[in-house]
Design goal:
Strand content: 15-25%
Distance between the termini: 60 Å
Largest sheet: 4 strands, mixed
Helix content: 40-55%
Radius of gyration: 19 Å
Order of helices and strands: EEEHEHHHH
Shape: globular
Oligomer: single chain
Strand order of the largest sheet: 3-2-1-4
């Protein structure tokens, strides 16, 4: 059986260490979900769930495909997954630091306009980081 590619959403819930991950589609009667104290843990948990479902299906003489996930992170899980300073990132991307901290901790949910602004700013940040601005040798050697 071919590998099935599924979109999985990673979300941060209210409170600390409360992350969930769910596939947007089921495989037959099998719903794929994972939970953890971090975004990474929730992502690993859903992979483990898929592995356990496959083992259970095989034990029952059924088939369950290999699953590959494409993950999408909400604002809170993004800043958990990538250990960026929220305040500095907010300033760089042009978002109010206090508002971004509230989005990250799930105190407030951003409106689509803010999500788009954050996404555009993070894309700009990634492009700037990839622009090769880092020095490649000790600074003394440039003098």
């Amino acid at each position: 059986m071919a590998t099935v590619k599924l979109l999985a959403i990673v979300e941060r819930g209210k409170g600390k260490r409360n992350f969930s991950c769910f596939a947007t589609e089921s495989i037959g009667n099998w719903a794929l979900m994972g939970y953890g104290a971090s975004a990474r843990e929730a992502m690993e948990d859903i992979k483990e769930v898929a592995k356990e479902y496959k083992e259970e299906a095989e034990a029952n003489g059924e088939t369950f495909p290999d699953v590959e996930f494409e993950f999408r992170l909400d604002v809170g899980s993004f800043f958990d997954y990538y250990p960026l300073d929220v305040t500095a990132t907010a300033k760089y991307i042009g978002v109010n630091p206090s508002a971004l901290r509230q989005y990250v901790t799930s105190i407030r949910d951003p409106q689509q306009k803010q999500i788009d602004k954050i996404n555009d700013g993070l894309k700009r940040l990634a492009k700037d980081i990839g622009a090769g601005m880092m020095i490649t040798q000790p600074a003394v050697s440039y003098v």
